[in-house]
Design goal:
With 127 residues, the protein is of the alpha/beta class. Helices cover 21% and strands 35% of the residues.
Length: 127
């Protein structure tokens, strides 16, 4: 359904460290990095861009918006959460089951250093 997502940053160096760490836990390599912009994911598939806003205004998180990344297993969700907290992220919901969504839903929520809400989620009952 989606081609890509984009999150703005006010401190590219700080965000690059954060996104390099969390994306690695999910198996997403950095595709490109140019002055003030980086991308993670698949060249011709889904990806996330991290960059300074094009309008040169302040990057602010959207109210009610978050990006959920698929994890292959629950261990990846746990690793995502730990890497986020170790690299300047803040907790928004510890890793764990969320049976209110469906029986196998396992997710974790964080905010990146600019306040954007992110999630890793596994839809499998396998660890």
């Amino acid at each position: 359904m989606f081609s890509h997502t984009t999150v703005g940053t006010n401190d590219f160096t700080r965000s690059l460290k954060f996104y390099d760490a969390i994306m690695a836990t999910l198996g997403h390599a950095q595709l490109l990095c140019v002055e003030g912009a980086a991308a993670y994911g698949e060249l011709t598939g889904p990806k996330t861009f991290v960059l300074f806003p094009f309008d040169e205004g302040k990057a602010v998180p959207g109210n009610g918006m978050h990006i959920a990344y698929l994890a292959k297993n629950r261990a990846q969700v746990d690793a995502f959460y730990a890497a986020a907290l170790e690299n300047g992220g803040t907790p928004e919901g510890e890793p764990g089951p969320r049976p209110q969504y469906h029986p196998n839903y396992y997710g974790a929520y964080v905010r990146d250093p600019d306040g954007n809400k992110l999630q890793a989620v596994c839809h499998s009952s396998k660890g």
